[in-house]
Predict the structure.
Amino acid sequence: MKSKAQSRGKHLGLGAGGAVESAFQNAPLGLANPIYNVGLGVNPVLVGFAMAIPRLWELLLDPLIGVVSDRTSGRFGRRLPYIALGLLGSLVFFIAMWWVPVGMSKQALGIWLVVTAFLFYTCYSFFAVPYAGLTIEASTAGTDRIGVMSARTAFANLSQIGISWIYWLCQREWFSSPVEGMRWVGIGFGLLITLCGVAVIVTTLRLGIHRHVGNKGSLPIDKGIYLRLLALRPTRRILTALLGTMGCFTLVSHLSFYLVAYHACNGDLKKASLVLAVKATVSMSAAVLACPLISMAAKRFGKDLIFKILIFVGVFSSLSMWYLITPLNPYLSMISDLGISLCMVGFWMLMPTYLGDISDHYEQTTGQSCQGSLSALYGTAVKIGASVALLLTGYILVICGFDAQMPHEAMARPISNMRILFAVVPSVGLVISYFAMIRFMPERENVHGTPAE
């Protein structure tokens, strides 16, 4: 009984970092357009570039952090020094992002967003890459790793509930404007998320994980690690699934705000902020509750089967958005939200376990610990998909013909274009993921691309 309690404490403590991963990665993406475009009048194309440029920089930075982390040894192990540094820097620049100096021109406001977002995401990488490596190397294949990833995914979804209420809080009468509200709400939210990161550090130190995995005698990785990892077919298939899903979802995710605000709520932003918050709270709460259920199902029926079922649920739910985002009932699209949340919580829970399978076999075969490098590749694929998509998000609004200043009666065509994209594009990403992983999963290939015995 004590052993189970200890395992649960370990899973929750390490998994708490999922809140930092998700919140600090997604909060700026979800709030940049409402605050900078709608609130401050900054061109949406510039906002899209401000969000994309840091992610492109991370494509160069993440592999370096992964290698350096894998090669680090010392009193606090391979990961903790970078996790602590990245956590502190992320908090500072997350707050700075919303404390926009008064009286700046719209172009200067855009530059402020570019600079603070660049510094913020740089610090975020110093947390995210070593943290991802820590969750893999601190868990063993099977129930222990699924338990850590389940907790990590649950905390990630809990943070999404918090994100969903930020814009609503910024609309309260306590603040002179949503822009002013974001200054103060940003401080509170940033501190709360940082505490989750502190929980990872405390858990690692308390259980001595940094000693067990930081100096366990693995051979140091040498040059060419990324080329060798990319030469493995299972690695390439996982990266393809990540690129497809992340790219397609990110490309149109910002359209949710505009469709709810200007289609379902007929331009009433205060009503829209409540609808968006309630929808996200319901779907993310369901996702949190689904984490242990998906975990149990994966352990009993195999993660391959559960992965395929969840992909089908996601495709169907995404396509149904065409019908369910409607002014007849702004909350009706929660039905689709639930299906997509179920799909994505399973996706982000199970993909790291596949990554762990590759990592374990690579270490057994070569004697080299590559969790940080492999996690950097994982994060790089996610960020390539997100970066390319973010570069195009502002253009998506332009192509659709949308302008927040146009009369509501003139928005019918732009809204119709957005509805099509919002329903179809995520489905395409999930189909890409399905075919990328369906060839990987049945054979249960080892890292050399041949079926495991």
Summary: The two ends are 35 Å apart (CA to CA). The domain at 7-438 is CATH 1.20.1250.20 (Growth Hormone; Chain: A;). DSSP finds 17 helices and no strands in the chain. Residues 214-220, 442-453 have pLDDT under 50 and may be disordered.
